[in-house]
Structures are given as structure tokens and as C-alpha cells.
Amino acid sequence: MSNRLGWLAPAAGAVLVLAACGESVDPRDNTDAADSEDTGGGGQVTLLMESWRNDDLAIWEDVILPAFHEQHPDIQVNFQPTAPDEYDAALDAKLSGGTAGDLITCRPFDVALRLYEEGHLAPLTDLEGMEAFDDVARSAWSTDDGSQTFCVPMASVIHGFLYNTEIFDELGITPPETEEQFHEVLDQIAADGSYSPLVMGTADQWEAATMGLQNIGPNYWNGETGRQGLIDGTESFDDEQYVAAFTELASWADYLPDGYESTTYPDAQNLFTLGRGAIFPAGSWEIALFNEQADFEMAAFPPPLPEGQDTCYISDHTDIGIGMNAATDHPEEARTFLEWTTSAEFADLYANSLPGFFPMSDHDVEVDDPLAQEFLNWRDECESTIRNSYQILSRGEPNLENQLWDLSAQLLNGTVEPQEAAARAQDGLERWYQPQQP
Amino acid sequence: MSRLRTTSQPAGTSAGTTTASTEAVPPAGPVARSRRRRFPTHLVVFIAPAAAIYTVFMVYPLLDSLRLSMFAPRDGVQVFVGLDNFVHLLTDDLLSDAFWNAVWNNLVFFAVHFLVQNPIGLLLAALLATPTLSGRGTYRTLLFLPTTLSVVIVGFIWQLIISPVWGFVDTPLLGQSSTALVTLALMSVWQYIGIPMILFYAVLISIPDELTEAATVDGASAWTTFWRVKFPLLLPTVGIVSVVTYVANMNAFDLIYTVKGALAGPDFASDIMGTFFFRTFFGFQLQQGSSTMGATVATMMFLLILAGVLLYFYGWQRRVESYEL
């Protein structure tokens, strides 16, 4: 046997030697080759943009970037996304190796802050157009004292409730405005028995915290007041408003689909788009997918107001920013692009290409998608805030965000009481966060 | 060879035997001895590639992670802190609770494999080895097939099968703290049952027919034949299967990460050392990872695995009798 195949070894060796002799051209190098030619000859500069939004590749290439290139023919921007779960590690490696792109898409808060502190992100505080963003929008990409900003806020996501209008019409229900009405609506759908009143599961844990607690919570802790209060140490998780938020979340358990303890996020998405549930506690990022998958009309209502409250608060969470690699060879051109991203034109293009991701600048933007526009309208009626565990409070051990996932899921599973959940979250903070220590 | 030399020696008597002959052959002795003692270059050549790869990819990373577990970041630089990380891991109730919870869950995870995988594997192997069975190849392939599947596929399929929403089970088995871990362990047993089965089967078919025939002639029933004749021959394999399962289970991570995520819920009921290590080393969501504390957890995993393997070598393998067939 070995003798018959003996000729293979030298043959394979010869092939390898031949292959090694050739001048290898990696097709992926093409962009770089074009880059160096451009800078050398025609004066055109190519900028590479790092991002984790590989879903948005077509939108950037076909809609957003062509609009920029039209105004700045001398600057060519290439969108170069990485898979979301690899992005942070890959970007870290590229930045330390000096091969990262000129423009960097920024994760909110500590991840981007660390890159800034390590000198990988350039400060952008004095960037022209930055004044279009308010403090809440900038908070995700500013130093703790707010003095330096290092990424242009690009998009936020808004929490609320999506509902199936056909089911609402069938049962003669109107969208609730107060919490009391919300529970009446849920009871009514439950009494009918054909649909799950609320579609959510706790298997993946994050939905319970993100689409549950952080969705309805701002109404209880008064948005920014409560969030800043936790950071200053003037409020604590065992205060009554937080216990009330946990209690309201726990009451959802009766309205969730059977077996919600092992229902995952994709399960819940499918249940809703298949028309088996009436209300979906949502983030606005669902809009594009749901528009595509659901064959019924959908509408949305903001988190219902608790008893005796007039002001509504929404979680308008800062999600995506864009900054500049401090080591870029073309800082001028990169800043030109970043200035453009602060403009009304960019805001309009972005909001309409990606319904459900909302620009954070103060330009008036009209969104064609009615569902997305509904979410966006809440900004005028309600006060915006962000998730309370994201800034500063998740830096220690135990990690507050992880704790809130665990506790929210357990509240719905009925394995922890609201009082106890609040006490445990507070204990966790007191362990390491000095302003919260008595 | 020595025989020839003996005869060529004039002084030797034919009855002089070997002792006399070796003393009597001074010129031949050193040659033979030097030939025997010559450095075995060919062995080095054969071992070198494997040793080099093993050193670079296994031994060095292992030693380096042991080293890393004795360092901690202080003001941005890693400094030597001795065993501080271990003290911290075992005494800080925040970390130690999570750690012991992971260790305990891991032992449960292994116990389920040990108690379910071995007996079922043995049963399937015994059935496969039945001489009258037809279609043996088909069964063997089908039973072994899940082992070759990706763990992502196994997790996904089982999640659908036992989902209260889409599947056949009304109880949210994966969603309750009381059932999640055992359910995950059984999913893993289903996937890997082919390995003990094939190992047991290989031993069973290598048992000579004479032994079973002799037992039958002596009047033993099939049941007695299995337990008195075949099972003792299987025992060394049971040991090997168990220790391999132990090592694989203590290193397990993929299935639980795929199905339950890195927080291994609900309430960390399915958190094992692999997922605990992952969160500690790489961080999770807003939690920043710590490579030094991660290395400490990895070292503890290594020590626990080492302890189990040593227990097997000294407590089992040295005592169990193996028979030459």
C-alpha cells in the first residue's frame, strides 16, 4: 500500500514548492493596494471603518457612504465589519498591532472608555457639530466627569411594547396608558385564552432585565434623576421606587406563555410574529425584522404610567457611536467624515435606512416607517434616559448588569421575591461602590 | 549471538554455560555493550516532532497559565503576588460561592455521565455483540452518529424537542433550577453514548468463543456468563472510559454555553467550571475579564482534574486485574 502511494510525497512536495514560488496576492489586500495608489496619485484618501454591524453592510455601501462620497469625492470610506461577538477582541488586537481602520465604531461606556484611556481613540470634544448632542447622548462616550468626548453618538434604541393590532381589534382592546389599564388589558387577553398576553421568555435572562426591568423601570425611578441618584449614592436599590419596579415586573409572570422559563429570545420573537401572542415587550431594533416576518399590522405603546404619575420616561439607550483611531494617517479626512455624521443629512439617511435605530442629534428627523416613527414620537412626549446599570455601576464585582439579568429572570420565574431582589442588588453595589457604602 | 561466540572460544567448555562464556570473551564484550549503549538517535528523531508540538501547544501554555495565576495587575502592571489569587478565590465569599457552586455542579454533571453513560453504553455494546443480531453495522453507525455531530446542533435540536413552546414536553426542563443541569447532562450523554459503547463493544467481540462455550458447557446461563466471564474482562475498559469521561466533563463548556449562555442560568444552576472560567477570564457583557484570576480558576480546574486522574491511577488501575486473552 505504502509503495503504491509512495509517489505522492515527492509530488506533493513539488506542488508545495511551486506554490511557494508564486507571488502571492491575497484578494483581501486589494483595498489596501487601491488605498496606497490613491494617496500617491490622484490625492484621494481611503478611510477604513471598523464596525460590528455586519447586518448593515449593504446600507452603508449603497445608501449612506455614496451620499458622503458625492460631497467629498476626495475621500473614499470603506465599511469593514466584523462579526458582533468577535468585534471587541479583533479590534483590540488590530489596535495594538497598528492595523486597525481609521474610523472606529464605538461600543457604549466602559469598552470605548478603556480604548480612549489607552490612547487608541482620539478626543473629539471640539469636533464641529458635536453641540448637536445633549449630555445623555454623549454620556456613553465621555469621560466620567463629562469633560472629554471621544466618539460621535450615532444611534440609540428605544424600549416600549409592540402589539398585534389584529388581536387588539378582535378582542376590542385599546392600547393602555396607565399601569392599571395595562393589567386590565392583560387580564382580558388571558381570559379570552387564545393568545399569550405577553410574549417573553426568561431562558436567556437578558430579555427579563433589558426588555422588562429597563423598559418599565424609568417610570418608577424617574429616568435620569434615579439613574444619577444611584451613581451619586443618594438613592439605593432597596428604596421603594425600585422595589415597586421589581414588583411590577414580577406580576408579569402570570401573563407569559406556558413554559416561559425555558423560552428563549428567538422563541419569543417567533411566537409573536406567528401571531400566537398579543404584546411583545420590545426594543426598537426589532422593527426591521418584525416588519419582514409578521403578516399582521403592528403598533406600539410606551411603558404604561404607574398610578398618579404624569411624566413618562423612556429608555432611549445609547448603543452605537463612531470615533477616530488616534493612530490614523489621515486625521483631517477622518474628522471631515465624523463632522458629516453629526449633520441632519446623516441623521435622516441613517434613521430611514435602519428603522429602529434612532439618531441622537437634535435635528428633526422624519422616519418613513410608521412603527419606527411611533417610537421616535415618544421622545417629544417623554423624558429620555438610559439603562441604569451601564454607566460606572457595572465596573465592580459583583457586576450589576449580570446581577440584574439574574434577578429579573428569577423574579419572573418566581424564585426570588421583589424585596429580596432589591436587597441583593443593593448588597452587590455596597460591596464595592464607595458612594453607596453607608 | 553469544552462543556462537561461546563456541568459537577455545578455552570454553561446552558445559561452561553463559556465565563462563561472558567472562571468557573479553574482545567481544565491549563491542556488544557499546552497541547496546549507543545513543538511540532514531528514537529522538521519531519523538521530536510530537514532543515539540506538544511542548509548544500544551506544556508551555499550561506552565504559563500556572505562572499567570500567581500574578495580579497593580496599577496597570502585572506583579508577582504568590498565592494571593488562590486565597482570594477560596475565601472571598463572592468568588468562592460561585466557584464551589461550579465545582459541585460539575461533579453532578460528571455523576450523571458516570451513572447513565456507562450502563447504557454497556447495554448497547452487549446487545450489539449478540451473535444472532442482524443489521449490526447499521445500528452501530446510528448509535455512534450523534458523537460526530456539532455540539451546537445537538443543543439546538434538543432545545426544540423539549421546548414547551414547540416540542413534546410541557415542563420547562431547561428553565428550572432543579432540572436544568441534569437535562443538559443527559443531552450530553445522548451525544457521547457512542464512545463507551464502541470501546465496550471492541472488548466484547475480542473475547474468544472458547471462554463462553466453556461456561455454557459448565451450565452457566447467559446472565451468569456475562457477569462472571465477560464483565471482569470489561473492567479495565470501564476504568478508562470513566477517567476519560471525568476529564472531558471537568473541561466541559461548549454545550452549556451554547444552550444557556455564559451566565449558565437559571440562578447559575447550570454553571460549571468551564463557564465560570469563561466569565472570569474573558468577562461578560459589561463585566471586564481578568486574565490572572482566570488563570487561577484554570489552575484549580487543572488540579481537580489531576486529583481525579491520580485517584484513578492509584485507586483503580493498579488494583484491577487485566487478563491476557
Q: Give the SSE order of chain B as H and E letters.
A: HHHHEEHHHHHHHHHHEEH
Please state the average pLDDT score of chain A.
89
Extract low-pLDDT stretches of chain A: 27-41
Return the CATH topology of the largest domain in chain B. MetI-like fold
Count of DSSP strands of chain B:
4
CATH superfamily of the largest domain in chain A: Periplasmic binding protein-like II
Cα-to-Cα separation, first versus last residue of chain A: 80 Å
- What is the CATH class name of the largest domain in chain A? Alpha Beta
Percentage of β-strand residues of chain B:
under 5%
Q: What fraction, in percent, of the residue positions of chain A are helical?
A: 40-55%
| Strand proportion of chain A | 5-15%
* Tally of helical segments of chain B: 15
Shape of chain A: globular
- The end-to-end distance of chain B, rounded to whole angstroms, is 32 Å
Unreliable spans of chain B are 1-26
What features would you describe in this structure?
The complex is a heterodimer of chains A (438) and B (325). Chain A is an alpha/beta fold. Chain A is built from 18 helices and nine strands. Chain A has helices at 8-21, 30-40, 57-71, 84-97, 110-117, 135-139, 165-171, 179-192, 206-221, 224-232, 240-250, 265-273, 286-293, 331-341, 344-353, 370-381, 400-413, 418-432, and strands at residues 45-51, 75-81, 103-106, 151-164, 196-198, 277-283, 298-301, 313-324, 383-385. In chain A, strands 1, 2, 3, 4, 5, 6, 7, 8 and 9 form a nine-stranded mixed beta sheet that branches. With 325 residues, chain B is mainly α. In chain B, the strands form two sheets. In chain B, strands 1-2 form a two-stranded antiparallel sheet. A two-stranded antiparallel sheet of chain B has the order 3-4. The longest helix of chain B has 36 residues, at 93-128. The two termini of chain B are 32 Å apart. Residues 1-26 of chain B have low confidence and may be disordered. The chains are: A alpha/beta (438), B mainly alpha (325). Chains A and B meet through α17 of A and β4 of B.
